[in-house]
From TrEMBL:
High-level lineage: Eukaryota, Viridiplantae, Streptophyta, Embryophyta, Tracheophyta
Record GO biological process: protein ubiquitination
Protein name stated in the entry: RING-type E3 ubiquitin transferase
Source species of the chain: Coffea arabica
U-box domain residues: 78-152
Statement: the UniProt record of this protein carries the keyword Transport: no
Catalytic activity: S-ubiquitinyl-[E2 ubiquitin-conjugating enzyme]-L-cysteine + [acceptor protein]-L-lysine = [E2 ubiquitin-conjugating enzyme]-L-cysteine + N(6)-ubiquitinyl-[acceptor protein]-L-lysine
Keywords: Repeat, Transferase, Ubl conjugation pathway
CDD domains: RING-Ubox_PUB
Pathway where this protein functions: Protein modification; protein ubiquitination
PROSITE patterns membership: U_BOX
A GO term, aspect molecular function: ubiquitin protein ligase activity
């Protein structure tokens, strides 16, 4: 999807600046090393450049150590590893959690995201969203440790995402919105500007929350069109992406979702427009669904059906955003029934069978497996052999856990699959191996299946 919602600089901290420069040099060095490694001949210029970068990195490391000594005396005091940011390697002042559950110091992870990165620096996993959640527990532990050691940390509020909109920002904002009711050329230009500004500047995202008329003004060019074919595709993409950018701002989530025309227009965008538009519409629904009240609102609107249809189409650009949106929405119990009714099980099993987005889609299928209708469809669409095949072929403990959780539900719901499960374990030991080597949850589920199967055999022999 389009890289949107990355956070701006603005803290002016020299430690942050030094660490950011270190990251920049490291990335450049990685590119050069990769080029040297992949080339047939050793490029002397590349070697020289790599040497210069290494020297620059050394100087910056020394500088960063010197700067950080203003915060604490590292020569006489060892900071616990869990209190250090993986990016800066320094004591965290404002610890926040990213989508993978890892904790970083806010200004450093903000810089990472601002540079366009969508992965977790420590795990390299793709981030399902860029929301930063304060880690209050670690913050309290750091505060107590600092108090015990006589260290004064800067106030974390000085590292906030945004300094607030200026009067110049407001004037430009009002001007751009007024053009959304002007000529087509003005509308397209304004839509493009708003997309870029809400991507780069949190202040512009915040401005939309100051007026109930702002979002309707933004949407007016596409909300007034009689049919999707009347909408300029580039303008639709810019407007939908602006909605995505707005939804990243926590204070906007409720306002955006509850503006009456937003969800219907996002649903229209899921069905039409460029693939970038469709992907960003799915991403917007995912981001908005962070709020439970929005999950209910989006589910009732009927948005799951176009999401499932887009997943079925199989566009590589859109599928990950679509899967994330479906997963988030199905956390709400009533949305599980809606997803099953709208054909989610068949589509997901087809994708998993073809080994498409296995990690993400298995997680959704496991979530749906407590719905009886979903279990019946899993049996109908031959989920059992598919799940066993995945378990035999993957080293991923989480995927095995989700597979056995689904199989556990099927085992206790449909006795016609008992013979197939017994033969699978007799031939490959697929279930028994999980009892020995699986996660704690996988062990429980696998043991439960074997106990049920053994009890059934014993009852048969007794009879």
């Amino acid at each position: 999807m389009a890289k949107s919602g990355v956070l701006e600089d603005g803290d002016g901290d020299p430690v942050v600046a030094a660490a950011a420069k270190v990251m920049e040099l490291k990335r450049e060095l990685q590119k050069i090393v990769k080029a040297i490694d992949e080339g047939d001949d050793v490029n002397l210029d590349a070697l020289d450049k790599a040497h210069r970068l290494l020297c620059a990195l050394k100087e910056l490391k020394i500088k960063k150590r010197s700067l950080s000594s203003k915060i604490h005396d590292s020569s006489s005091l060892t900071v616990p590893d869990e209190f250090c940011c993986p990016l800066s390697e320094e004591l965290m002042r404002d610890p926040v959690i990213v989508a993978t559950g890892q904790t970083y110091d806010r200004p450093f992870i903000q810089k990472w995201l601002k540079d366009g990165n969508r992965t977790c620096p420590r795990t390299q996993q793709v981030l399902s969203h860029t929301i930063l959640t304060p880690n209050h527990l670690i913050r309290e532990m750091i505060s107590q440790w600092c108090k015990n050691n006589g260290i004064q940390l800067p106030d974390p509020t000085q590292y906030s995402e945004d300094d607030g909109p200026t009067e110049a920002d407001r004037d430009r904002f009002i001007s751009l919105l007024s053009k959304m009711s002007s000529s087509l050329s003005d509308q397209k230009e304004s839509a493009r500007d708003l997309r870029l500004l809400t991507k780069r500047m949190p202040s512009f995202r915040a401005l939309f929350g100051e007026s109930v008329d702002a979002i309707p003004q933004l949407l007016s060019p596409i909300s007034k069109s009689k049919s999707p074919s009347d909408i300029d595709p580039d303008m639709q993409e810019d407007i939908i992406t602006t909605l995505l950018n707005l939804s990243i701002h926590d204070n906007n989530k409720k306002l955006v979702a509850e503006t009456p025309m937003v969800i219907p227009l996002l649903m229209d965008a899921l069905r039409s427009g460029t693939i970038e538009t469709r992907s960003n519409a799915a991403a917007a629904l995912f981001t908005l669904s962070a709020l439970d009240s929005n999950k209910a609102l989006i589910g009732k609107s009927g948005a799951l059906k176009p999401l499932i249809d887009l997943l079925d189409e199989g566009h590589n650009i859109a599928m990950k955003d679509v899967a994330s949106a479906i997963f988030n929405l199905c956390i709400l119990h009533e949305n599980k029934a809606r997803a099953v009714r709208d054909g989610a099980v068949k589509v997901i099993l087809k994708k998993i069978t073809n080994r498409v987005l296995v990690d993400e889609l298995l997680a959704i299928l496991a979530m749906l497996s407590n719905n009886q209708k979903a279990v019946e469809e899993m049996v109908e669409f031959e989920a059992v052999p598919c799940l066993f095949s995945i378990m035999r072929g993957t080293a991923c403990a989480r995927n095995k856990e989700n597979c056995i959780a689904i199989l556990y539900t099927i085992c206790f719901s449909d006795r016609t699959k008992w013979k197939e499960m017994r033969e699978e374990d007799r031939t490959y030991g697929t279930i028994s191996q999980l009892v020995q080597n699986g996660t704690s949850r996988a062990k429980r589920k696998a043991s439960g299946i074997l106990e049920r199967l053994n009890r059934a055999v014993n009852l048969t022999h007794t009879a």
